[in-house]
Design goal:
Length: 218
């Protein structure tokens, strides 16, 4: 992906920014910007030689996300449109697509990473899903979908298919146990692992206090 240049970054940003600025589910333009900054920081710390590819994948990583579109096909069409604007070679386009697909958690059914740049963006995206910002985003998303904050009669799902992950009834607090608390141990880069540690501890403290208050013990 060494053919990616600054103009590609500017074109992609101009194309995707209006879409994400309309989001209120925690997948907004602020999220894209934080992933971009985290990814470029990790890129520097890990001595990655292709920061422009890292930046582009960061900008595009949520464009086709099924959560943000009415159907899977609509999301794929959105990604195709922006890639057409970038006029990549077929080889670069396929690698960018593979990188984007590999970033997603998919209910624990994540795809293999095709390159170092994808690993960096995946770690950066997961860092924004945990810690203080991650907590805020999780409740924002749950609220946007009409999910309960918590229900102790609903079981925590240990294993699930991607379809079950996206469609079965759950709660916002359950999401911490079904995904967010797992992310620390799924980090790939050494920098990502170090940054995830503090954020993970913060989530554990938050959940302890949340459940204490929920049960009327505080």
């Amino acid at each position: 992906m060494n053919t990616i240049n600054k103009q590609h970054i500017l074109t992609a940003e101009a194309y995707v920014r209006p879409f994400f600025e309309r989001d209120h589910s925690g997948h907004d333009w602020g999220h894209i910007q934080r992933v971009r900054r985290n990814a470029l920081f990790i890129c520097k710390q890990e001595s990655c030689q292709n920061p422009q590819a890292v930046e582009l994948i960061s900008l595009l990583h949520d464009v086709s996300d099924p959560k943000l579109h009415e159907t899977y096909e609509v999301g794929q069409d959105a990604l195709e449109k922006v890639l057409n604007e970038l006029s990549f070679t077929r080889e670069t386009e396929l690698l960018v697509k593979e990188a984007i697909v590999s970033v997603s958690f998919n209910g624990g059914h994540e795809k293999s990473l095709p390159c170092t740049e994808a690993a960096i963006v995946r770690d950066a995206d997961r860092l924004d899903a945990i810690g203080a910002v991650g907590i805020a985003r999780t409740f924002a998303y749950g609220g946007s979908r009409g999910a309960k904050m918590y229900d102790d009669e609903i079981r925590i799902r240990e294993k699930m298919t991607e379809k079950e992950y996206r469609s079965e009834t759950s709660t916002t607090v359950h999401h911490f146990y079904e995904k967010l608390l797992k992310l620390k141990n799924l980090m790939v880069t050494e920098t990502g692992k170090k940054l995830a540690h503090e954020r993970h501890q913060f989530m554990e403290s938050y959940l302890k206090q949340f459940l204490k208050e929920w049960k009327g013990q505080a």
